[in-house]
Design goal:
Helix content: 10-25%
Low-confidence stretches: 1-10, 217-223, 258-329
Strand content: 35-45%
Mean pLDDT: 75
Largest sheet: 7 strands, antiparallel
Shape: elongated
Number of helices: 4
Radius of gyration: 22 Å
Structural class: mainly beta
Number of strands: 22
Distance between the termini: 9 Å
């Protein structure tokens, strides 16, 4: 599916822009391709730059509870420094490498409720129009898919996925937020663990897998969170017994209390950094597309139905009107 968005003209009779993304999901570290089409307005305009910006819908902890808003995490200028004559058409193809830590939006073709977008900024003689967003689809890397598949084979269930503003201490994290994939434990661990959260921090050579287990307390032991980090190489995806490795990771966390990595939520409460609205609690994709059993890679069930529009509605008008424009492509 090709996504298209017509940006509003800058000023009366100003130029307009269509951004068209090539079809298909892109993996982290992969190249997002497409083209930007510009059409001159009723008079000539000096185009200072055309910039693509990647944004994500992120949750943040604040003094008044959780907040949600759009955070930009990558920018690239693809054109600029030219004069666009009246009615002139100009098309610029682009290939934009995604950051390696770009979060997944889908798994086995099923949406996870994570919202990413591409925003086109057009600067004309000092005026800037950031325009609206084109939805960005990101599929997992082979290592990410192998780890989640292993969780599914071990009997874990997919609960939700969200993006959290902050930094996980002791890791190589470079983006201002991280993705958490929440899993429910299999029956044989349900007495010891309430849930397991998985975070992937990819690099060109490998992947840091950060696991957090919410341990249940007992008569003779206290509950709490146990957090551990494991590093795997991309080239090991075909070599490892992933179910055995994942089972060993989690059971090691359950059996002993290790040192937890601190999470620095940084400027999460700052309205200047995160423009959003207060929420009563963690929303994640539970309000839109909570997919049961996605990590297993087998028959995919749905809790409450896959209602992608509900996820879109939560971010306001950012994606409003996309369905009506698809037929024009």
């Amino acid at each position: 599916m090709v996504f298209k968005r017509l940006l509003g003209a800058i000023g009366v009779g100003g130029p307009s822009v269509d951004t068209v993304l090539d079809d298909g999901a892109v993996p982290p570290g992969g190249v997002l391709s497409g083209r930007v089409r510009m059409v001159g307005g009723t008079s000539a305009a000096e185009i200072e730059h055309v910039t693509l910006e990647l944004v994500a819908r992120v949750e943040a902890e604040g003094g008044d509870g959780e907040r949600e808003g759009l955070v930009a995490f990558h920018r690239a200028t693809i054109d600029g420094g030219f004069r666009l004559a009246e009615g002139q058409e100009r098309e610029v193809p682009f290939g934009l490498p995604l950051p390696w830590e770009t979060p997944m939006t889908e798994l086995y073709g099923q949406g996870l409720g994570v919202v990413l977008g591409v925003r086109t900024e057009l600067a004309v003689a000092g005026a800037r129009d950031k325009g609206d967003l084109d939805p960005l689809r990101v599929r997992p890397l082979p290592v990410q898919e192998a780890v989640l598949e292993a969780f599914g084979q071990l009997g874990y269930g997919f609960t939700s996925a969200d993006l959290e503003l902050g930094h996980i201490g002791g890791t190589s994290q470079s983006l201002p937020f991280y993705q958490e994939i929440e899993l429910s434990p299999p029956p044989d661990l349900a007495h010891a663990v309430q849930e397991v959260e998985v975070t992937f921090l990819a690099t060109p050579v490998g992947m840091e897998v950060v696991l957090e287990a919410d341990k249940r307390g007992g008569l003779l032991s206290a509950g709490g969170d146990a957090v551990h980090r494991f590093t795997v190489a991309h080239q090991d995806v075909e070599r490892m017994d992933w179910p055995a490795a994942v089972d060993s990771w989690v059971r090691g966390m359950v059996e002993r209390r290790g040192g937890a990595y601190a999470v620095d939520h940084g400027p999460a409460a700052s309205d200047g950094y995160l423009a959003g609205h207060a929420t009563g609690g963690r929303s994640g994709p539970g309000t839109g597309a909570v997919v049961a059993g996605v990590a297993a890679g087998v028959a995919v069930g749905v809790v409450g139905g896959i209602v992608a529009a509900e996820v879109v509605d939560e971010i306001g008008d950012a994606f409003e009107g996309d369905e009506g424009e698809e037929g024009e492509d």
